Amino acid sequence: MTLVEGSGCFVVTDEGVRLMDLVGGIAVNALGHCHPEVVEAASAQMRRLLHTSNLYYTTPQVELAEALVASAFPGRVFWCNSGAEANEAAIKVARKWGRLHRRGAFTVVTLEGAFHGRTLATLAATGNAHYSDPFRPLPEGFRQVPRGDLAAVERALVDPDRPGVAVLAEPIQGESGVNPLGTEYLVGLRELCDRHRALLILDEVQTGMGRTGTMWAHQAAGIVPDLMTAAKGLGGGLPLGAVLVSKTADCLEPGDHGSTFGGNPVACAAGLAAISVITRDRLFNRAAIAGDQLKEGILGFRAMGLPVADVRGSGLLLGIGLSEPWARELAGVALQEGLLINPIGAATIRLAPPLVISDDEIELALEGLRSSLVRVMRDKGL
Ligand SMILES: Cc1ncc(COP(=O)(O)O)c(C=O)c1O
Question: CA 20 to 30 Å from 172, out of 17, 30, 57, 338?
Fold first, then answer.
């Protein structure tokens, strides 16, 4: 399928079919498609200055870094172009920090079910054989522990043979099925990192920019990481990634790391417009309210005998757990019903619609999901 246009929560195919987009560019299009303020900011910047190299600062870069810091916690920002690059950079910071402060400890502890990207190091951090096996050998220095088991994290951090220098985790695991780590667990990770002098790196690539009901998902847990990675919605639809490094973790010096296009002024201008609109219009609150409405509506399908087991996630990052492995078929039928939804795994549908979705659009989405589920049941002869 080829998409040629988009506006708000809708896209249009090259055959002129209009679809409601509940995938949102996989959590990129926080403000929907072609938000006028983002388009205007990017266009104006394109006329002014397109690229400079990173030998120099540009105004949009500096302003977006300030906005990012103001939205999260004090620190310095490293700019790159994607989520995987942001995590690579965070891993490099952790390794250098380990050399400086932890006698060369370099092992990064990650969680089962993680997804941190598709470069070799981030594949090693992701630890999912399905993604990484064809590309072995992977870089060393990663150790994966079961999700939800704080004692396993602690054992990994204090292992005398390969002590952990950092824990890398997503507050809500997106790709593996929208599985929240939960407040208690996140607070536990923070405490363990403090106790064992390890860095807490939170991967907010998918959960950030207001999507889960707070500007950054970790804020709901009342904790502050040492490093945070961001991408996806950060560039307002243009490619942009960032690592926000707190004072505790700050150890990169000029020349340690770099990226030709990282922090491109047009992407930063678009990102600055996006973060400004999200903050000004408090779209994280809107995400929380809209997410509850969507969640409630979907859970209501159970009383109609439709195959919904649960709805996971927070705000507008939701995973519909189906009681049958019909996610792909459901996505196919939903497309015919005019809805873009994202099957992940056999029995989960991920929804990451724009945060600007209206009440009426949510009702439309629910009606489309309901009729798609009914059709799948009918196709199965049920
Ligand atoms: C949590 C998380 N981290 C990292 C990435 C990788 O981001 P990118 O595809 O921009 O490299 C993703 C992509 O889905 C993600 O969801």
Answer: 338
281 tagged catalytic: no
pLDDT, mean of residues 201-221: 98
Of the residues 229, 262, 280, which one is the last residue of a structural domain?
280
Domain hosting 94: range is 36-280
- Among 79, 132, 205, the mutation site with the greatest number of ligand 1 atoms within 8 A of its Cβ is 205
**Ligand 1 atom nearest to 204, measured from its CA:** 1
Active-site residue identified among 203, 226, 295, 301 = 203
- One domain for residues 110 and 240: yes
How many independent structural domains does the chain possess? 2
pLDDT in tens, 260-308: 999 999 999 999 999 999 999 999 999 999 999 999 999 999 999 999 9
- Starting from the edge strand earliest in sequence, which strands make up the sheet with 18-21, in order? 3-7, 10-13, 18-21, 339-340
Residue 382 pLDDT level (bands cut at 50, 70, 90): confident
Domain limit, last residue, from 263, 280, 297: 280
β-strands 179-180, 172-173 pairing: antiparallel
